[in-house]
Structures are given as structure tokens and as C-alpha cells.
From TrEMBL:
One of its GO terms (cellular component) is cytoplasm. The lineage of its organism: Bacteria, Pseudomonadati, Bacteroidota, Flavobacteriia, Flavobacteriales. CDD domains: UDG-F1-like. It catalyses: Hydrolyzes single-stranded DNA or mismatched double-stranded DNA and polynucleotides, releasing free uracil. Its main location: cytoplasm. This is Uracil-DNA glycosylase. GO terms for molecular function: uracil DNA N-glycosylase activity. GO terms for biological process: base-excision repair, AP site formation via deaminated base removal. Its EC number is 3.2.2.27. It comes from the Bacteria. The active site is at D65. The keyword DNA repair applies.
Amino acid sequence: MNVNIHESWKPYLETEFDKPYFKDLISFVKAEYRSHTCFPPGNQIFNAFNHCHFDDVKVVIIGQDPYHDVGQANGLCFSVNDDIKHPPSLVNIFKEIETDLKIPYPKSGNLMRWADQGVLLLNATLTVRAHQAGSHQKKGWELFTDAVIKAISDNKENTVFLLWGGYAKQKQKLINIKKHNILTSGHPSPLSANRGYWFGNKHFNKANSLLEQVFLTPVQW
């Protein structure tokens, strides 16, 4: 099956593309995009992989679902296109970076600049129907993205996984903690952040310190 994903990922994921669940998933997604408005645009579904090649992955951030309003989703978790209002979770991410690293709050919420530095911004579900949060969950995407996490865990070393919130923390079981680093905290959504589970986690500083310890270039957050 021809999947619009960067060549570097294919040796690790090709077996998934041939599994019945993945074929069913692609059929479902194609039908959804034909009959409904869905996000992200079809050519951006695998953007996380196309901007962050397998060999370059050094940090993984796991989200749950793409944004479901017009113009927001661009295939990278928590990221929005240039000139789009920053959603509440992204605002809180940038606020934490501001206090953690003393760098100014950015104008653009487009996190492509992170992906291009080796940050895999992976939503567990890669598509969604417009204005219907969670509408493409449990159709097969989670099986695929779990396989992605496991492929990174099995075939790489010293990756920093940032797991924010209960859903992301469930992915710990897929990660070999002898080879990789996991940082967990509450989710950056207002519900969690306003209860004190997000701000002050210093994940961006800690992630860079872990990368520097193994002689990898820190991320320009």
C-alpha cells in the first residue's frame, strides 16, 4: 500500500501497512474525507513523519487527537498553522517554555520548526472529522501509532519521551526505559494546568539536558 510517509520510516513500519487493520483504516479515512470535511488536509496526515525523519528523532511528544476547527491542524500534535489563534493547550506550552527557558512567547503556533529539529509531534489519532472531537478514534490509528512508538523504542536509543496527561502516560508500557528517558506531567490543557499539574514541569530544559548528556544537539524550543 502506498502511504505518503517519508522513506526513512518505511523499513520500520512497512509491515503495518500490509496488516488488515491498516487497510481497513485507510479505507475508512478515504471514505470520511470524501463525504465529510476532515482535518488535517489529506496531504498533511503524515506531516509529523515527513518533517521528522526516523534517524533524526530525539524527542517524542504524544498528543491524542488533531484539532478539529478550520485551518488549525497541520499534522503535528499541539501545532497550528501560521496566523491561527493559539489553542489553550498550546498557549500553556509556550508559557511554560517562556518561564523555563526565558525565551519570548512566539508569534506563530506552527511547531514545524521543532519537527525539523528531530521532535516527533505524534497524535495517537492522525485524523478527525470537522467539529467532532474524537470522531476517528478506535478505527485503527492507535494501533499504528503504538507501532510507531514501539519502533522508536526498539530501534533507537536515548530518545526523550514527553508524556503529558493520563492518555499519553499510558504509552509508557511501549517504551524500553533502559534505553530511553521518559518525562511525565499533567496535560497542558487549562483544566489540568490550572490545577497545578502542568506549570513548572521544566520539561523543555530537562529534555535538552538529557540530550546534551548523550552529545545530541539540544532543541531550540
